[in-house]
Amino acid sequence: MADISARDVKALRDATGAGMMDAKKALQETDGDLDAAKRVLREKGLASAAKRSGRAASEGIVYAYMHKPAPNYPSKLGVLLELNCETDFVGKTEAFERLAKDIAMHISFADPAFTVRDEVPQSVIDEESAIYAKQAKDSGKPEQVIEKIVAGKLESFYKERVLLDQEWIQDKSKTIAQLLDEAKASMGENVSVGRFARIRVGEGAAR
To answer: Based on the number of CB atoms within 10 Å of its own CB, is 170 exposed (0-12), middle (13-18) or buried (19 or more)?
Structure first.
């Protein structure tokens, strides 16, 4: 078995946000291979990610992302993101800040209106459903399939407008919710989006 140093454990904790004993055990299982240890933590953590979702996440950071089309071009689009975790230690890691940056960048491009489905007002759901039903009826669809069509279009609406349902711009094989689940797995804590604000110069101004 490889000799696991405190420096190795710290490096793994900084990269993943995992607890000290979990990090040491993962390194022991992989003979000190840092990349393999990261995979072990991720594989073990995914199984319990759902349990972590119910735990309080009152620590974290507020991350500011400013989008610049070119290095010398002024920023005209910015995002403020509150990303939460359970402990101050995880909130200070490079992995956590990198996650915040990835999500903030995603928000700047994808422009979600809500964080989770529960935030979508019922009035909005009713209005969208009525529009989809009328479109289906006007196109001659039979009554018995209109309900399924409406349900399918609502799913598309959620995937377009709800942050956690959106496909991650850097890897469309996963959603933002799945990205957060992976973070919970590797960091060993509940990780969640608290709130966000996306601001573009000129939006909301009288035209």
So the answer is: exposed
**What total of structural domains would you count in the chain?**
3
Is residue 205 a part of any domain in this protein? no
- Per-residue model confidence as pLDDT tens digits over 120-152: 999 999 999 999 999 988 888 888 889 899 999
Structural domain that includes position 134: 121-160
Q: What is the pLDDT of residues 66-109, one digit of tens each?
A: 988 777 777 889 999 999 998 888 899 999 999 999 999 999 99
Indicate if 12 and 111 belong to the same structural domain.
Answer: no
DSSP state of 77: E
In terms of domains, do 131 and 149 share one?
Answer: yes
Q: For residue 64, what are the contacts with CB-CB under 8 A and spacing of at least 6?
A: 78, 79, 80, 81, 104
Same domain for 106 and 186, yes or no, is yes
SS (H, E, C) 82-104: EEEECCHHHHCCHHHHHHHHHHH
